[in-house]
Amino acid sequence: MSGPILPQTLERRPLEPWRAIIGSITGVKPCEALQRPGALDLQVKAVTVAYANGHVALRDASLALDGPTICGLLGVNGAGKSTLFKAIMGMVTPAAGEVRIGGQDVREAQKRNWVAYVPQNEDVDWAFPVSVRDVVMMGRYGYMNALRIPSAADRAAVKEGLKRVGMWEFADRQIGQLSGGQKKRVFLARALAQDGRVILLDEPFGGVDVTTQEQITALLRELRAEGRIILVSTHDLASVPQFCDRVALVKGMVLAAGPTEKVFTPAQLARAFGASARQHAGEAVTLVEDAEGNSLVIGADGRVLGRLTPREAMAPG
C-alpha cells in the first residue's frame, strides 16, 4: 500500500525517524521526489558507441547544454541521432567518453527520474490494450515501490499532465483509438507526469496536423521556461528556426552545435545533409534535401525561404 502524502515543510526536516519507515513501505525516496532540482546541465563528452557487430554508430561525440533550452538534433537517417539518445538514456554503454546530467552519470540520473523520453509513433505497439491513463501512469513508475500501486500524488500528477496537453477527457480511452497527434500528446503527458528535467523527443511532429504541431511547440516553450532541457530529433528542418534556440548537427559525430543562428546555416547544413547552390527568385540560395526527398530553400542569412519538390528542385533556377 502507498504511504501518506507528507507536507513539504515536514519533508525537508532531515532527522525525522519515520523517513526510513516511509521509504521502506512506499519505495519512494521523499527527499528526492520533493526536492527536485531546478535547471540541470547535460554534458556529452567525447562519446563513442560501437555495437556488437562492430559498427561504430557514434564517434567522439560531444554536446554541452548548460541550462534550459530547446535544442534541435538534426541529421540524415542513420546519422547517429537515435544512438545519441540511447547514450543519454543509459540504454547503451559508450566504448569511450561519458554522459553526465546535473553532474551525475546517466544511471544515477535515471534513478532520480531526470530523463524522460517521447518516442516516435512508429516505435509503439498501438494494439496493446492499455488506456491513456495507464500510459501516462508509466511516467510515475520510478516513484513507486515494486508493487506499483499509485499514490494520490501519482494520480494527481497523471491528471495534471493530461490536462496540460488537453487530453484529460480521453483518460479512459484505449490508446490505440487515438489519432497520431493525440497519441503524441499522451506521451508528452507521460513525460510531464514523470517530471523529467531532460526531455528527449523523437520526431514529435511526425504524423500530426498543423494545429497539433503549434500546440506541441507552445508546450515545449513552456517547459523550457520552467527550466528544462529539451532535445528534439526532427527531420522537419523548416520548423527548427521557429522554436529551437540551439541546434546540433549529427553525422556519425556531432559536426557542430550551438545557437541556431550560428549553426543552422547553409554551410553547416551542407556538411550534415549535402547541398547544392542555385538562384531562387533572384537570390543566391542553398538547397538542402530533407528526409522526404524535398529540398529546403535556405537563404544566405540562414532564413528558410521555402520548400521544393524533387521536380521543382531539378528545374532551372
Describe this structure in words.
With 317 residues, the chain is an alpha/beta fold. Among the domains are: 1-35, no CATH class; 266-314, no CATH class. The chain contains 13 helices and 14 strands. It has helices at 8-11, 19-26, 30-34, 81-89, 106-111, 132-137, 152-164, 180-194, 210-225, 240-243, 260-263, 266-273, 310-314, and strands at 42-50, 56-65, 69-74, 96-101, 104-105, 115-118, 198-202, 229-233, 246-250, 254-259, 275-280, 283-289, 295-299, 304-308. The chain has a six-stranded mixed β-sheet, with helices on both faces. Strand 7 (198-202), helix 9 (210-225) and strand 8 form a beta-alpha-beta unit. The chain is globular. The chain starts with 7 loop residues before the first helix and ends with a helix. Residues 1-35 have low confidence and may be disordered.
